[in-house]
Structure formats: structure tokens, C-alpha cells
Amino acid sequence: MEKTFGRYGGQFVPEVLMPALEELAEGYERYKNESTFIAELRHYLEDFGGRPTPLYYARRLSEQFDKRIYLKREDLVHGGAHKLNNTMGQALLAKYMGKRRIIAETGAGQHGTATAMAGAVLGLKTVIYMGAKDVERQKMNVFRMKLLGAEVIPVKSGSRTLKDAINEALRDWVTNVGDTYYLIGSVVGPHPYPTIVRDFQSVIGHETREQILEKEGGLPDSIVACAGGGSNAMGIFYPFLKDDVALFAVEAGGKGLKKTEKVAYHSASLCAGEEGILHGARTKILQNEYGQILESHSIAPGLDYSGVGPELARLVDIGRVKARNISDGEAVDAFHLLSRLEGIVPALESAHAIAYVQKAEDVGRLVIINLSGRGDKDVEIVAGLR
Amino acid sequence: MKIKKKFDALMRKKERALITYICAGDPTAEKTVEIVDALVKGGVDMIELGLPFSDPIADGATIQAAIDRALTSGMNPDKFFRLVGSMNVAVPLIVMTYYNIIFRRGVERFVSDCKSAGITGIIVPDLPVEESEELHQCCQDSEIDLIFLVAPTTTEERINLILSKASGFLYLVSRLGVTGMREDVATSTRELLKRTKAPIPKAVGFGISKPGHVKKILEAGADGVIVGSAFVNIIAKNEPKMLEDLAGLAATLKSATK
Ligand SMILES: Cc1ncc(COP(=O)(O)O)c(C=O)c1O
Predict the structure, then answer these.
(1) I need a surface site. Which of A112, A322, B108, B171 has the fewest CB within 10 A?
(2) Which residues, 6+ apart, have CB-to-CB distance to A339 below 8 Å?
(3) DSSP label of B64
(4) Architecture of domain B3-238
(5) What is the Cα Rg of chain A in Å?
(6) B220 pLDDT band (50/70/90 cuts)?
(7) 3-state secondary structure of A275
């Protein structure tokens, strides 16, 4: 396994964690090709998680956009988003590695919920770190995680949001590294996490490939996915990297690509970020002139992060993936549009991808959108806008 | 002042080193000058000056709060180097910061700013030896010590790798976890001291706050101790007698090193 993706990636973590990362890389190499691990993961993804998810031809949306549009229905995965693909894989890996306790960060609570589900079904003690501000904003998800038996710890430091929750999860890991597995929620963090999470999420792309070949007899012109950390995007892109298929990562343009000394009004690290080191990896991040990390913004809680996965940053640099961004307002419009046209309420995150396809002129005719999650979690946010 | 020279001088006096951490700009840049002065008067042998970073993953609540106060007071790398350059300190100064701050400024520029400001050592808690090539090279060229951390989880193999790059002293992390005061001395500290054979001095940090701790750790074979949160706690209170208290704590801890 490579530790870097071009200039990005690496392992910028306290010395205490270096042996743990090594152990993780070894554990992953050992189990990823072991038949019992593969069979057990498959069992959970299918019978517990609901895979494979359909590739749905969105007829009315296609007519409206004058394209042929398929939706990869990750919204139908147990928990309501692609997150379980990763949490199930990593939680099982944790179990195989003999860890009894899993910890995770969460922003809006999606990854926390998916971790709590995997922790519950595998009987692992689960602790979720969540920014105090997010605990306030996402009471429903906090309650869900507790229902699932997880302990939720509000993080009161820094900006009290996702990046601080990651900091705190890392601090926990530094302290309890012997029996604890840190289950990171996206293709971010130190090596080998970006690779592990990408591999577990690649199930999306592998299925999509088979399904589109069967339905259309060929590959699509483009695949469009929203990108926060980048896991649903990397998951659907990865099996298509060598094909003649255009790949678009759509970030949260928020209220415009502006920033101050302390905050960015968006979460578009690929479009507007600069190279730096955050949460163990060298990647594109939102930072000020001195290297202080900016608080990010998006109406979609799952996109609200100041960094992005190193492999995605690399793919954008070499031109293989095109980075775009969509404003809060455009995403909300797409949220309504898909709900009314197709009877599917999309996650606000996924709505960014839909909004881009609506206005794009460079996506071609046959387009696959990764519908990374459902929008039940967002109805309060959208209702509050009225 | 060079770190090695200080350790050599202490050795001749049969003393061990008291190294203290404070965060520059906590509560203000002006106060930092007075605080450093008080610490030196109290007898500290070296000072680690924190250059604040917004996301300090290796620090516990006490030092996180100090970093927040420093950032709020407007501390940044430009001001930091101006501040340190203007001070005249009789003991070695070491900067402690996270790698993004260095990377963002440019590694070469950061090291040359350290040199100009009279800083003789750099500690970067989120920069393991594998990622340190560029900074290590610049530090060597400028004769600045790059100080590495060794943790209870560090294998023999890694200790040797770290020793191939380390200079100044080896920073032994007393236990698993982040910075912050603890009640006792962990057995992991003794074990780590015992199994770490280094040609450079060994200083133990994380969780040390009392003369009793200092004595135990020095008896176990350390050449120095690093104390942060206990001093930062005094600064956090920001009482009129803060400087006296800092000097007092320094003197108490220092006497335990003799
Ligand atoms: C539905 C949904 N889509 C997308 C994301 C963004 O994450 P990533 O970019 O890692 O796919 C999230 C994160 O919580 C999410 O819940």
C-alpha cells in the first residue's frame, strides 16, 4: 500500500499512533483478502445493509434536464446513506484485529449513526465524538446513536464542530490505543485510512459498473458525486478511474467562495483550498495565511469540513476528477426538485450533485449521480428556511 | 543558547534539567515576556514556547485553552518571531508547534526565522520521523536541534530510526495520552526510560507537575523533565501574583532536580 498519493497523504500524527497505524495497515492487508472476512462483510452488507442498491433510471428528472440520468441509490442503504459501507467494513476489521472498543467522530451524526449500527450488530463498545454545536443542532441523531447503544461525547473545544470532534477522537485514540479502533468516517486522515475507506466504499462503483453495462450496454459519459471528505465520490469513481468517463466532485459552495481570517463561507477545499496538513494528512485544506484552520460552512452538514481526502486532491490536480461547487441555495432547490419529480427526498449533500447536473454543460448525456443519502435528516433544516 | 551546552553545564553541576512549556501570547505577547523572565528567575533551564495552532491534537484541555487564549490575543508566527527576537533570554528557547504552521510558512523560512530569533530547538508533536526529512535537513543546515518524541508504544526499531535524526534531547512521552497534569508517575515511564538507550539526553514530559514526580522520574534515569500544564494553570488564573507563583513553582521543581 502506498502511503501517499503524489504529494498528498502521509502520516502526520503523534509518535504514539505510528505503531497503531502500522498495526492497522498490517491488519487490513491481512484480512482484506481473507475469505472468511470477505464472506462476513458481504453477509452484513447484503442482509443487514440492503446491498446491492439499485441503479435507478430517473425518467422525470431526465426529461426535465434533457439527459439520461441514473441515480445510484445509496439512500436505500441501512441508515439512509453510503456511510454503512465503510463503518461495517471497518468495524468488522476492528473485530478481526481483536479490538473491543470503536470510536468515531461525527458532524451531523450520519457517520456516528452508521458506526453505532455496526458497533451494535458486532457487539463492540462504541463511543462517538460530536461537536457541542452539532449536538445542539442534531438532537434527533444524538438520540438515535444513544438508542443504538453508543455513548455520545459532546466536544466543547475549538469551533465545537466536526474538525474538533476529529481532534478529540484522535486524543482518545492516543490515550487508549491498545484496545481501541479509530473508525474514521471518510477518505481522510493518515495512511492507511484514505485507502481503507476508499476500498470499502468502492462497492458503490463496482455495482454501478455492472448495472450500467447491463442497462445501457456501455459506460456513462460522466459520474457526479458530492464531496465533503470525499468517500462517496471516491467509492463510485474508483472502479472507473481508467475508463473514458468524466468524473465530477461537487463541493459545498455555501454562501460563496469567500473567507475571513477565521471562517470560510463554504466547504470547497478542492476548489478553493490550499495545500496543508490537517488530521494526519497532507491535502487541500481551508486555512488562513498563517496555517490556522478555518471553520467551514455548508447547509449540508455532511459536507461541512475544512479538508478533503488526499487521493481526491491528487485526482483533481492531475485533471482526472473535476472539482465543482454548488451554493446552499442551488442545493436546496435541487432538494425540492428531486422530491417532487421522483418521489425521492435526497440528502442535502447529494442535492449538490443533482444541482450540478442541472446546470452543467460538461457532463454529457448519459449521467450517473451518486445519491449518497436520503434527506429525512434534513427536513427540519429545509423547513426552517421557509 | 545551545541545548547541548546547557545539558553539559548541568552535568558538571550534577543537576538535571527543568524544562517548562508555556504558550506564547497567553494571555498576551507583553505578558509572555514577563512570564519568561519570571521562569528564568525561578531557575528553569530551558523554555518551550508554544506557537499556537488552531487544532492541537496532542494537547489536553489545559494547553488547548492556553492556545485558544493566545490565538484570541492575536498571536501569529509573524508576531511570535518578532516577540522572541526582541527578548534576551539566558536559557535555550525551543519552539513547539504543529506542522501545518511550519509548512504554511515554508519550512526553510520557518527555520531561518527561528535562527534569527535565537531559537535553538524545534518540537513538532504531529511530525513523526518518517515525515521529517525536509525539516530535518533545514535544521541541520542551520544548526538547530530537531527534537523528537518517543512514546511508550514506540518499538526498539523506531527508537533507532528516531535516534538517527534526533538532536538536542529525546522527548520521552511519559504515558499514552495528551498533555495535562496527572496524580502519579506511570510505570510505563520507568519502562520507557529503561529501554531507551540514547546518546543524547532524555527528558520526560506529559503529566508532570510536582516535585515528587520530578524526583521519581530523575531517579528512574531521566536527564530532565518537561512541565507544562502546571505552569499554564497558573497563567490561566491570571492573578496579580501570577509571576511570583510561576517563579515559585519553577524554584520548587528546580530544587528537585539537584
Ligand atoms: C448523505 C451524505 N452524503 C455525503 C456526505 C459527505 O461525505 P463524503 O464526502 O465522505 O462522502 C455525507 C457525510 O456525512 C452524507 O451524510
Answers:
(1) B108
(2) A345, A346, A375
(3) H
(4) Alpha-Beta Barrel (3.20)
(5) 19
(6) very high
(7) strand
